[in-house]
């Protein structure tokens, strides 16, 4: 095993200094060592990829689609993505100049941030929010500025946004939104989206709107930020959550042509292009009625699971923001129990073999909360809630 020559390490890229692995992954790895553990920790749909989507990938392999594709994706895949965005959210994008197919939503985010951020820039992020964003921002030498939304039901208000813009001055370049939200499950309705857009349109800020969970909204149709302010918005989406294709790594990124020209360059430099069989599968998922029905069936199951988990947890004393999208419950630990959310999660997994995620890993406003992923079978959730109930009963404050 080779040992790195010490002198090589002193002048590496300093934006990586101090970065740590994703805390969700660290905890999940520790929990996985416990025999018999139930993990409601990762945002990983338990459904299989639909058969017709698998078949599209198989057909692409059999048809020897093994050569380099265009860096921003084959035209038929971009056309499928454009059709999906038009059909679902009434968004108009030119598939030739305004859409790129990425290696998952994360790579799309990375390419967008690579394009936009300079060292010393600031990026506003309503918090709690997906923990990976922080690292992606810092890698580019920029500074994440969190806006704590706990007091407003985990929804950014126009007043909060305006204050953050005023307080942070001209170094603010980007607002990074995520809705439906990971970790809270909260989303924005059309009026809330418009209110935020009205603040942004008075500025030259770019909005990166991560809407990867857009197909998993409950009770109301998803309102895309790009519908209100397309000229200032870079939109992130994909098939990971809507079609249970997390491991297939296909996302899409859309925006105004002049911005996308630069983002597509960063994407090409980062990965060259996405995989042909996976792109064929994504086109099938996005463009067919069968693909639409796949998502609706999954969504119906998620609603049943959400309602079951929320009812049990509220009965145990957890306070829960209304989870109207994605597949997460973000719950405040009842008073009298361990209030450090990391300690609570480690105590729970050690004593009752149930792995949940500590809320503080998602930024300010997440302290004293836990995130539960209900992207698991009802049978698994029933056993998980039995274990949580047992833990709460066994550790009642005296």
Automatic annotation (TrEMBL):
<dbReference type="InterPro" id="IPR015422">
    <property type="entry name" value="PyrdxlP-dep_Trfase_small"/>
</dbReference>
<dbReference type="GO" id="GO:0008483">
    <property type="term" value="F:transaminase activity"/>
</dbReference>
<keyword id="KW-0663">Pyridoxal phosphate</keyword>
<dbReference type="InterPro" id="IPR004839">
    <property type="entry name" value="Aminotransferase_I/II_large"/>
</dbReference>
<dbReference type="InterPro" id="IPR050596">
    <property type="entry name" value="AspAT/PAT-like"/>
</dbReference>
<dbReference type="GO" id="GO:0030170">
    <property type="term" value="F:pyridoxal phosphate binding"/>
</dbReference>
<keyword id="KW-0808">Transferase</keyword>
<keyword id="KW-0032">Aminotransferase</keyword>
<dbReference type="InterPro" id="IPR015421">
    <property type="entry name" value="PyrdxlP-dep_Trfase_major"/>
</dbReference>
<feature type="domain" description="Aminotransferase class I/classII large">
    <location>
        <begin position="36"/>
        <end position="388"/>
    </location>
</feature>
<comment type="similarity">
    <text>Belongs to the class-I pyridoxal-phosphate-dependent aminotransferase family.</text>
</comment>
<dbReference type="Pfam" id="PF00155">
    <property type="entry name" value="Aminotran_1_2"/>
</dbReference>
<protein>
    <recommendedName>
        <fullName>Aminotransferase</fullName>
        <ecNumber>2.6.1.-</ecNumber>
    </recommendedName>
</protein>
<dbReference type="GO" id="GO:0006520">
    <property type="term" value="P:amino acid metabolic process"/>
</dbReference>
<dbReference type="InterPro" id="IPR015424">
    <property type="entry name" value="PyrdxlP-dep_Trfase"/>
</dbReference>
<dbReference type="InterPro" id="IPR004838">
    <property type="entry name" value="NHTrfase_class1_PyrdxlP-BS"/>
</dbReference>
